[in-house]
């Protein structure tokens, strides 16, 4: 898993970094050259951060560690990349959603804007060796569980405390 693991993360990391870059671009006021720099710095920071925390055989393992989160605190990886192009945390808070969660896992990158926004998948690829039908099935139940989970405040409150 040595150097191979790094290569495997490429798509997931570039998807996640491109997404955050798109959010910055949409907010306006950041030049294309800065955005390109930001995206590269963010990818580099994520690669470094995830290096020993990427488990394609157990995609959910380490998910919390890899999760990129803005929640009244700036995610350190985004903050670091923004610092490289001279964007302060204050400026980032103006440009990016104040509540953003981005999950970067093997075979899937998804995000949620707002504490009870719905989860949107940015990238998904079948897991090698997993039966496609079985995977689809588990995905649907996961979505259902998410929907029903939202109606119970205690459950979503637990989720919040765990992630912070």
How would you summarize what this structure contains?
The chain has eight helices and four strands; from the N terminus they run ααααβααβββαα.
Task: Describe this protein's structure.
With 164 residues, the chain is of the alpha+beta class. The protein has a single domain, classed as Actin, Chain A, domain 4, CATH 3.90.640.90. 58% of the residues lie in helices and 13% in strands. The protein contains eight helices and four strands. It has a four-stranded antiparallel beta sheet with strand order 1-2-3-4. The longest helix has 20 residues, at 132-151. It starts with a helix and ends with a helix. Residues 1-7 and 132-164 have low confidence and may be disordered.
- The CATH architecture is Alpha-Beta Complex
The biggest sheet amounts to: 4 strands, antiparallel
Secondary structure tally: strands? 4
Task: Specify the helix fraction band.
Answer: 55-70%
Write a concise keyword list for the protein shown above.
single chain, 164 residues, alpha+beta, Actin, Chain A, domain 4, 4-stranded antiparallel β-sheet, 8 helices, 4 strands, 13% strand
